Amino acid sequence: MSPQAKRSSVIHTSIPDAGSAIDRNIPDFPIAQLSDEEKYFRTYKAPPYLEEIEDEVRKFIDYHATHTGKKVALITSGGTTVPLENNTVRFIDNFSAGTRGATSAEYFLENGYAVIFLYREFSLLPYSRHYSHTTNCFLDYMTESNNKIEINPDFADEMLMILRKYKKAKDSNSLLVIPFTTVNQYLYTLRSIAILLQKVGSKALFFLAAAVSDFFLPQSRMPQHKIQSQSTGKLIIDLEQVPKFLRRLVDNWAPSGMIVSFKLETDSSILIDKAKTALDRYQHQLVIGNLLQTRKKEVVIVASNDQSHWIKLTDEEVKENMEIESLIVPEVAEHHEKWISNHIKKEQESH
Ligand code: PMT
Protein backbone atom coordinates (compact mmCIF):
# COMPACT_ATOMS: atom_id res chain seq x y z
CA MET A 1 0.00 0.00 0.00
CA SER A 2 1.40 3.43 -0.88
CA PRO A 3 1.70 5.93 2.03
CA GLN A 4 -1.02 8.15 0.50
CA ALA A 5 -3.47 5.27 0.39
CA LYS A 6 -3.33 5.02 4.21
CA ARG A 7 -4.65 8.57 4.63
CA SER A 8 -8.40 9.04 5.05
CA SER A 9 -8.38 12.17 2.86
CA VAL A 10 -5.95 13.78 0.45
CA ILE A 11 -4.15 16.91 1.66
CA HIS A 12 -3.91 19.78 -0.82
CA THR A 13 -1.63 22.47 0.61
CA SER A 14 -2.44 24.77 -2.32
CA ILE A 15 -6.08 25.26 -1.39
CA PRO A 16 -6.74 28.14 1.04
CA ASP A 17 -8.32 27.25 4.39
CA ALA A 18 -11.64 29.12 4.00
CA GLY A 19 -12.51 28.70 7.68
CA SER A 20 -9.61 30.72 9.05
CA ALA A 21 -8.49 32.70 6.01
CA ILE A 22 -10.09 35.94 7.19
CA ASP A 23 -10.16 35.37 10.94
CA ARG A 24 -9.78 38.91 12.36
CA ASN A 25 -9.03 37.53 15.83
CA ILE A 26 -5.57 36.42 14.81
CA PRO A 27 -3.18 39.32 15.50
CA ASP A 28 -0.93 40.56 12.73
CA PHE A 29 2.64 39.30 12.67
CA PRO A 30 5.12 42.05 13.39
CA ILE A 31 6.67 43.31 10.15
CA ALA A 32 9.61 41.07 9.30
CA GLN A 33 12.77 42.96 10.17
CA LEU A 34 15.76 42.63 7.92
CA SER A 35 18.89 41.60 9.75
CA ASP A 36 21.71 44.15 9.68
CA GLU A 37 23.62 41.93 7.26
CA GLU A 38 20.67 41.64 4.86
CA LYS A 39 20.19 45.40 5.03
CA TYR A 40 23.84 45.83 4.24
CA PHE A 41 23.71 43.72 1.09
CA ARG A 42 20.51 45.42 -0.05
CA THR A 43 22.02 48.85 0.43
CA TYR A 44 25.52 48.43 -0.96
CA LYS A 45 26.33 47.33 -4.46
CA ALA A 46 28.41 44.27 -5.25
CA PRO A 47 31.79 44.98 -6.82
CA PRO A 48 31.43 44.86 -10.63
CA TYR A 49 34.00 42.07 -11.00
CA LEU A 50 32.34 39.71 -8.51
CA GLU A 51 30.95 37.27 -11.09
CA GLU A 52 34.37 36.86 -12.65
CA ILE A 53 35.84 35.97 -9.28
CA GLU A 54 32.99 33.57 -8.60
CA ASP A 55 33.76 31.75 -11.87
CA GLU A 56 37.40 31.38 -10.93
CA VAL A 57 36.61 30.18 -7.42
CA ARG A 58 33.98 27.74 -8.71
CA LYS A 59 36.49 26.18 -11.10
CA PHE A 60 39.10 25.90 -8.35
CA ILE A 61 36.70 24.23 -5.93
CA ASP A 62 35.31 21.89 -8.63
CA TYR A 63 38.83 20.89 -9.58
CA HIS A 64 39.72 19.87 -6.04
CA ALA A 65 36.34 18.29 -5.34
CA THR A 66 36.66 16.16 -8.48
CA HIS A 67 40.36 15.47 -8.90
CA THR A 68 42.32 15.79 -5.65
CA GLY A 69 39.81 15.48 -2.81
CA LYS A 70 41.89 18.02 -0.86
CA LYS A 71 40.50 19.97 2.05
CA VAL A 72 40.07 23.63 1.09
CA ALA A 73 41.10 26.50 3.38
CA LEU A 74 39.79 29.99 2.81
CA ILE A 75 42.30 32.31 4.42
CA THR A 76 41.47 36.00 4.77
CA SER A 77 44.39 38.33 5.20
CA GLY A 78 45.34 41.98 5.61
CA GLY A 79 43.35 45.06 6.55
CA THR A 80 40.33 46.58 4.82
CA THR A 81 40.08 50.21 3.78
CA VAL A 82 37.15 52.51 4.41
CA PRO A 83 36.93 55.17 1.68
CA LEU A 84 35.92 58.66 2.80
CA GLU A 85 35.19 59.99 -0.69
CA ASN A 86 33.62 58.44 -3.76
CA ASN A 87 36.55 59.52 -5.92
CA THR A 88 38.78 58.21 -3.18
CA VAL A 89 41.71 60.35 -2.16
CA ARG A 90 41.46 59.58 1.54
CA PHE A 91 40.53 56.43 3.40
CA ILE A 92 40.82 54.88 6.84
CA ASP A 93 43.03 51.83 7.09
CA ASN A 94 44.60 49.64 9.75
CA PHE A 95 47.97 48.19 10.65
CA SER A 96 47.65 44.65 9.25
CA ALA A 97 50.38 43.72 6.78
CA GLY A 98 48.96 40.26 6.14
CA THR A 99 51.87 38.41 7.74
CA ARG A 100 49.62 36.02 9.68
CA GLY A 101 47.52 35.17 6.63
CA ALA A 102 50.34 34.82 4.10
CA THR A 103 52.51 32.75 6.43
CA SER A 104 49.61 30.51 7.45
CA ALA A 105 48.75 29.94 3.78
CA GLU A 106 52.19 28.39 3.21
CA TYR A 107 51.75 26.03 6.17
CA PHE A 108 48.25 25.03 5.08
CA LEU A 109 49.64 24.16 1.65
CA GLU A 110 52.39 22.11 3.32
CA ASN A 111 49.70 20.35 5.34
CA GLY A 112 47.95 19.19 2.15
CA TYR A 113 45.27 21.85 1.78
CA ALA A 114 44.17 23.68 -1.33
CA VAL A 115 44.13 27.36 -0.35
CA ILE A 116 41.93 30.25 -1.44
CA PHE A 117 43.82 33.31 -0.29
CA LEU A 118 41.49 36.30 0.03
CA TYR A 119 43.90 39.13 0.65
CA ARG A 120 44.13 42.87 0.75
CA GLU A 121 45.74 43.87 -2.54
CA PHE A 122 49.41 44.81 -2.08
CA SER A 123 49.62 43.17 1.34
CA LEU A 124 51.84 40.11 1.79
CA LEU A 125 51.41 37.07 -0.43
CA PRO A 126 52.48 33.49 0.32
CA TYR A 127 56.09 32.81 -0.82
CA SER A 128 56.78 36.23 -2.35
CA ARG A 129 56.36 37.64 1.20
CA HIS A 130 59.93 36.52 1.92
CA TYR A 131 61.22 39.15 -0.49
CA SER A 132 58.51 41.68 -1.24
CA HIS A 133 58.13 43.85 1.85
CA THR A 134 61.53 43.43 3.52
CA THR A 135 63.75 46.33 4.45
CA ASN A 136 66.30 44.86 2.02
CA CYS A 137 65.86 46.09 -1.52
CA PHE A 138 65.00 43.11 -3.77
CA LEU A 139 67.95 44.03 -5.99
CA ASP A 140 70.27 43.11 -3.12
CA TYR A 141 69.30 39.48 -3.69
CA MET A 142 71.00 39.60 -7.08
CA THR A 143 74.50 40.03 -8.39
CA GLU A 144 76.02 40.50 -11.83
CA SER A 145 78.40 38.02 -13.38
CA ASN A 146 79.60 37.98 -17.01
CA ASN A 147 76.96 40.46 -18.06
CA LYS A 148 74.23 38.28 -16.55
CA ILE A 149 72.10 38.57 -13.46
CA GLU A 150 72.56 35.84 -10.84
CA ILE A 151 71.12 35.18 -7.42
CA ASN A 152 73.46 36.35 -4.70
CA PRO A 153 74.98 33.08 -3.35
CA ASP A 154 74.32 34.28 0.24
CA PHE A 155 70.58 33.88 -0.39
CA ALA A 156 70.51 31.21 -3.10
CA ASP A 157 69.86 28.11 -0.96
CA GLU A 158 66.96 29.63 0.93
CA MET A 159 65.50 31.14 -2.24
CA LEU A 160 65.67 27.80 -4.02
CA MET A 161 63.68 26.15 -1.24
CA ILE A 162 61.02 28.83 -1.37
CA LEU A 163 60.91 28.75 -5.17
CA ARG A 164 60.35 24.98 -5.12
CA LYS A 165 57.46 25.27 -2.67
CA TYR A 166 55.93 28.11 -4.69
CA LYS A 167 56.19 26.12 -7.94
CA LYS A 168 54.69 23.06 -6.28
CA ALA A 169 51.70 25.08 -5.10
CA LYS A 170 51.26 26.61 -8.55
CA ASP A 171 51.81 23.46 -10.60
CA SER A 172 49.33 21.51 -8.49
CA ASN A 173 46.78 24.33 -8.82
CA SER A 174 46.59 24.45 -5.02
CA LEU A 175 46.70 28.20 -4.46
CA LEU A 176 44.11 30.67 -5.69
CA VAL A 177 44.73 34.31 -4.88
CA ILE A 178 41.78 36.72 -4.74
CA PRO A 179 42.19 40.43 -3.88
CA PHE A 180 40.05 42.98 -2.06
CA THR A 181 40.71 46.51 -0.88
CA THR A 182 37.60 48.00 0.69
CA VAL A 183 35.46 46.50 3.41
CA ASN A 184 32.57 46.28 0.92
CA GLN A 185 34.63 44.23 -1.54
CA TYR A 186 35.77 42.01 1.30
CA LEU A 187 32.26 41.27 2.55
CA TYR A 188 30.78 40.52 -0.86
CA THR A 189 33.69 38.30 -1.87
CA LEU A 190 33.70 36.45 1.45
CA ARG A 191 30.00 35.70 1.10
CA SER A 192 30.35 34.46 -2.49
CA ILE A 193 33.30 32.20 -1.72
CA ALA A 194 31.66 30.81 1.42
CA ILE A 195 28.53 29.87 -0.54
CA LEU A 196 30.60 28.23 -3.28
CA LEU A 197 32.57 26.28 -0.67
CA GLN A 198 29.36 24.55 0.42
CA LYS A 199 30.24 22.12 -2.39
CA VAL A 200 33.01 20.56 -0.25
CA GLY A 201 30.91 20.56 2.95
CA SER A 202 32.90 19.90 6.11
CA LYS A 203 36.17 19.82 4.14
CA ALA A 204 36.00 23.63 4.00
CA LEU A 205 37.98 25.52 6.61
CA PHE A 206 37.61 29.26 7.21
CA PHE A 207 40.67 30.92 8.71
CA LEU A 208 39.63 34.53 9.19
CA ALA A 209 42.86 36.37 9.88
CA ALA A 210 41.97 39.62 8.09
CA ALA A 211 41.62 42.72 10.25
CA VAL A 212 38.19 43.87 9.09
CA SER A 213 37.16 47.48 9.75
CA ASP A 214 34.51 47.80 12.42
CA PHE A 215 33.28 51.17 11.11
CA PHE A 216 32.52 52.54 7.67
CA LEU A 217 31.05 55.56 5.92
CA PRO A 218 27.74 54.71 4.17
CA GLN A 219 27.65 55.47 0.44
CA SER A 220 24.63 57.75 0.93
CA ARG A 221 26.75 60.12 3.01
CA MET A 222 29.96 59.84 1.05
CA PRO A 223 31.01 63.03 -0.75
CA GLN A 224 31.49 62.59 -4.49
CA HIS A 225 34.76 64.52 -4.60
CA LYS A 226 37.78 65.13 -2.43
CA ILE A 227 36.82 66.65 0.94
CA GLN A 228 37.88 70.31 1.01
CA SER A 229 39.39 72.20 3.94
CA GLN A 230 36.73 73.09 6.49
CA SER A 231 36.09 76.65 7.68
CA THR A 232 35.84 75.27 11.24
CA GLY A 233 39.40 73.99 10.96
CA LYS A 234 38.13 70.51 11.86
CA LEU A 235 36.96 67.48 9.95
CA ILE A 236 34.29 65.48 11.75
CA ILE A 237 33.55 62.04 10.32
CA ASP A 238 30.43 60.20 11.40
CA LEU A 239 30.94 56.47 10.82
CA GLU A 240 28.49 53.60 11.09
CA GLN A 241 29.21 50.20 12.59
CA VAL A 242 29.92 47.42 10.06
CA PRO A 243 27.51 44.58 10.90
CA LYS A 244 29.26 41.49 12.33
CA PHE A 245 29.13 38.93 9.56
CA LEU A 246 30.43 35.99 11.49
CA ARG A 247 27.01 34.81 12.59
CA ARG A 248 25.73 34.86 8.99
CA LEU A 249 28.76 32.90 7.91
CA VAL A 250 28.22 30.26 10.58
CA ASP A 251 24.45 29.91 10.11
CA ASN A 252 23.81 30.52 6.43
CA TRP A 253 26.83 30.85 4.20
CA ALA A 254 28.95 28.01 5.54
CA PRO A 255 26.77 25.70 7.62
CA SER A 256 29.13 22.68 7.31
CA GLY A 257 32.55 24.30 7.16
CA MET A 258 34.77 24.69 10.20
CA ILE A 259 35.25 28.32 11.19
CA VAL A 260 38.27 29.80 12.91
CA SER A 261 38.19 33.49 13.73
CA PHE A 262 40.82 35.71 15.31
CA LYS A 263 40.55 38.09 18.21
CA LEU A 264 42.98 40.95 18.42
CA GLU A 265 43.36 42.92 21.64
CA THR A 266 45.97 45.18 23.17
CA ASP A 267 45.06 44.41 26.81
CA SER A 268 46.07 40.88 27.84
CA SER A 269 43.67 40.76 30.78
CA ILE A 270 40.59 40.68 28.52
CA LEU A 271 41.85 38.55 25.62
CA ILE A 272 40.60 35.09 26.66
CA ASP A 273 37.24 36.40 27.88
CA LYS A 274 36.72 38.26 24.60
CA ALA A 275 37.59 35.12 22.64
CA LYS A 276 35.12 33.06 24.69
CA THR A 277 32.42 35.69 24.22
CA ALA A 278 32.96 35.57 20.46
CA LEU A 279 32.58 31.77 20.45
CA ASP A 280 29.45 32.06 22.51
CA ARG A 281 27.96 34.76 20.34
CA TYR A 282 28.75 33.31 16.93
CA GLN A 283 28.70 29.59 17.79
CA HIS A 284 31.69 28.70 15.64
CA GLN A 285 34.54 26.32 16.45
CA LEU A 286 37.81 28.11 17.31
CA VAL A 287 39.02 31.57 18.18
CA ILE A 288 42.71 32.37 18.03
CA GLY A 289 43.46 35.23 20.39
CA ASN A 290 46.47 37.45 19.95
CA LEU A 291 47.84 40.68 21.32
CA LEU A 292 49.05 43.39 18.99
CA GLN A 293 52.38 43.62 20.81
CA THR A 294 53.23 39.90 20.93
CA ARG A 295 51.24 38.43 18.03
CA LYS A 296 54.31 37.02 16.28
CA LYS A 297 55.44 34.90 19.23
CA GLU A 298 52.35 33.89 21.17
CA VAL A 299 48.67 33.16 20.57
CA VAL A 300 45.95 31.52 22.62
CA ILE A 301 43.71 28.91 21.03
CA VAL A 302 40.21 28.89 22.48
CA ALA A 303 37.85 26.06 21.53
CA SER A 304 34.07 25.84 21.76
CA ASN A 305 34.33 23.33 24.66
CA ASP A 306 35.79 26.18 26.76
CA GLN A 307 39.31 24.73 26.57
CA SER A 308 42.08 27.21 25.91
CA HIS A 309 45.82 26.95 25.69
CA TRP A 310 48.73 29.11 24.68
CA ILE A 311 51.19 28.47 21.90
CA LYS A 312 54.40 30.37 22.63
CA LEU A 313 57.74 30.50 20.88
CA THR A 314 60.77 30.29 23.16
CA ASP A 315 63.46 32.99 22.88
CA GLU A 316 65.63 30.39 21.19
CA GLU A 317 62.93 29.65 18.59
CA VAL A 318 62.42 33.37 17.94
CA LYS A 319 66.18 33.74 17.39
CA GLU A 320 66.11 30.87 14.91
CA ASN A 321 63.34 32.68 12.97
CA MET A 322 60.79 29.98 13.69
CA GLU A 323 57.32 31.12 12.63
CA ILE A 324 54.47 30.68 15.09
CA GLU A 325 52.15 29.75 12.20
CA SER A 326 54.19 26.52 11.80
CA LEU A 327 52.70 25.51 15.18
CA ILE A 328 49.24 27.06 14.79
CA VAL A 329 48.37 25.50 11.44
CA PRO A 330 48.95 21.78 12.27
CA GLU A 331 46.87 22.23 15.41
CA VAL A 332 44.02 23.84 13.49
CA ALA A 333 44.29 21.07 10.87
CA GLU A 334 43.93 18.49 13.66
CA HIS A 335 40.75 20.18 14.89
CA HIS A 336 39.51 20.20 11.31
CA GLU A 337 40.14 16.44 10.92
CA LYS A 338 37.96 15.81 13.98
CA TRP A 339 35.31 18.15 12.60
CA ILE A 340 35.23 16.19 9.33
CA SER A 341 35.05 12.78 11.11
CA ASN A 342 32.19 14.02 13.30
CA HIS A 343 30.32 15.16 10.21
CA ILE A 344 30.84 11.81 8.50
CA LYS A 345 29.60 10.01 11.64
CA LYS A 346 26.51 12.22 11.85
CA GLU A 347 25.73 11.62 8.17
CA GLN A 348 26.06 7.86 8.63
CA GLU A 349 23.80 7.94 11.68
CA SER A 350 21.12 9.91 9.84
CA HIS A 351 20.96 7.31 7.00
O1 PMT B 1 48.48 40.90 9.42
P1 PMT B 1 49.35 40.83 10.62
O2 PMT B 1 50.17 42.08 10.77
O3 PMT B 1 50.16 39.57 10.68
O4 PMT B 1 48.37 40.80 11.90
C1 PMT B 1 47.57 39.68 12.12
C2 PMT B 1 46.30 40.07 12.87
C3 PMT B 1 46.66 40.59 14.22
C4 PMT B 1 45.52 41.09 12.07
C5 PMT B 1 45.46 38.73 12.99
O5 PMT B 1 46.18 37.79 13.71
C6 PMT B 1 44.12 39.00 13.68
O6 PMT B 1 43.99 39.02 14.88
N1 PMT B 1 43.07 39.23 12.85
C7 PMT B 1 41.68 39.58 13.32
C8 PMT B 1 41.68 40.98 13.87
C9 PMT B 1 40.28 41.50 14.04
O7 PMT B 1 39.81 42.17 13.17
O8 PMT B 1 39.61 41.17 15.13
P2 PMT B 1 38.12 41.70 15.47
O9 PMT B 1 37.95 41.56 16.90
O10 PMT B 1 37.83 43.05 14.90
O11 PMT B 1 37.19 40.68 14.70
C10 PMT B 1 37.02 39.37 15.16
C11 PMT B 1 36.44 38.50 14.07
O12 PMT B 1 35.16 39.02 13.67
C12 PMT B 1 37.34 38.45 12.85
O13 PMT B 1 37.75 37.11 12.65
C13 PMT B 1 36.48 38.91 11.69
O14 PMT B 1 36.50 37.98 10.63
C14 PMT B 1 35.06 39.00 12.27
N2 PMT B 1 34.38 40.22 11.85
C15 PMT B 1 34.99 41.42 11.96
C16 PMT B 1 34.31 42.57 11.56
C17 PMT B 1 33.02 42.44 11.04
N3 PMT B 1 32.33 43.47 10.63
N4 PMT B 1 32.44 41.23 10.93
C18 PMT B 1 33.10 40.13 11.35
O15 PMT B 1 32.55 39.03 11.28
Largest sheet: 8 strands, mixed
Poorly predicted spans: 1-8
What's the gyration radius in Å? 25 Å
- CATH level 1 class label: Alpha Beta
What CATH architecture label applies?
A: 3-Layer(aba) Sandwich
User: Strand arrangement, largest sheet?
Assistant: 7-4-1-8-11-12-13-14
Range of strand content = 15-25%
Order of helices and strands: HHHEEEHEHEEHEHEEEHEHEEEHH
The CATH fourth-level homologous superfamily: CoaB-like
Structural class: alpha/beta
- Which overall shape is indicated by the principal axes computed on the Cα atoms? globular
Ligand list: ligand PMT
Count of DSSP H/I helices: 11
Q: Provide the helix percentage.
A: 25-40%
**Integer average pLDDT:** 91
Number of domains: 1
Terminal Cα span: 23 Å
**What's the count of strands?**
14
CATH topology: Rossmann fold
Protein name: Piso0_001396 protein
GO molecular function: phosphopantothenate--cysteine ligase activity
Domain DNA/pantothenate metabolism flavoprotein C-terminal: 197-310
Pfam family, one: DFP
